[in-house]
Design goal:
This protein is an alpha+beta fold. About 35% of the residues lie in helices and about 25% in strands. The chain folds into 2 domains: about 140 residues, Adenine-n6-DNA-methyltransferase TaqI, Chain A, domain 2, CATH 3.90.220; about 45 residues. The protein contains 5 helices and 10 strands. Strands 1-8-5-6-3 form a 5-stranded mixed β-sheet. A 3-stranded mixed β-sheet has the order 4-2-7. The protein has a two-stranded antiparallel ribbon with strand order 9-10. The relative contact order is 0.15.
Length: about 180
């Protein structure tokens, strides 16, 4: 499924030169709540990258949380580095990140991740255990169809959610005006 997959690392926060004026996006768990990572709150410097186990995950690949919060999946639309507890997956050339995103979000895969995770101070699943999850891949055409269909559904859901939010605002404004 991937050519490279590894966990990131966090440069020491006590060394300001690892962060000050940094231009390398540094993904934390809170950055993985949405399907796409387009920007992040924290950046690190080259010096911070070199002095930690963080590494650059090229854009259009998969970011998967495996510590504290297990199973958040995102597609990075920008080159990023990640902290520990987050795996960057550089996908094989023939795999579309959209398809892999949806695959990792299935109940089967998510359930397998949970069953392989251990609970100590917080939930954690090792990359070697994730590699033991078995699944079959449909052919490339089928993968493209699946990811296109699911992406279209996601877009429709997002549009409907925005419409609902607008209607709620209109309702709120009307209620205020009616009660004045």
């Amino acid at each position: 499924m991937y050519d490279v997959a590894r966990e990131g690392g966090t440069p020491s926060t006590s060394v300001s030169s690892y962060y000050l004026n940094g231009d390398i996006p540094f993904v934390k768990i809170e950055d993985t709540k949405d399907k796409y990572i387009n920007k992040v709150e924290t950046n690190i410097t080259i010096e911070g990258l070199k002095n930690s186990s963080a590494w650059i995950v090229p854009k259009n690949n998969i970011i998967l949380t495996n510590g504290a919060t297990v199973g958040n999946v995102s597609i990075n639309n920008i080159d990023v580095s990640t902290k520990q507890g987050i795996i960057g997956m550089v996908l094989k050339e023939n795999l579309n990140p959209e398809f892999v995103y949806y695959l990792l979000k299935t109940n089967k895969i998510w359930g397998e991740m949970m069953s392989k995770s251990s609970i100590g101070t917080f939930r954690y699943v090792l990359l070697k255990d994730l590699n033991k999850i078995l699944f079959s891949l449909p052919n490339e055409k089928e993968r493209e169809k699946i990811s296109a269909t699911l992406s279209n559904l996601d877009s429709s859901i997002t549009l409907l959610q925005r419409k609902c939010e607008k209607l709620e605002k209109i309702k709120s404004i009307l209620l205020k005006k009616m009660l004045i």
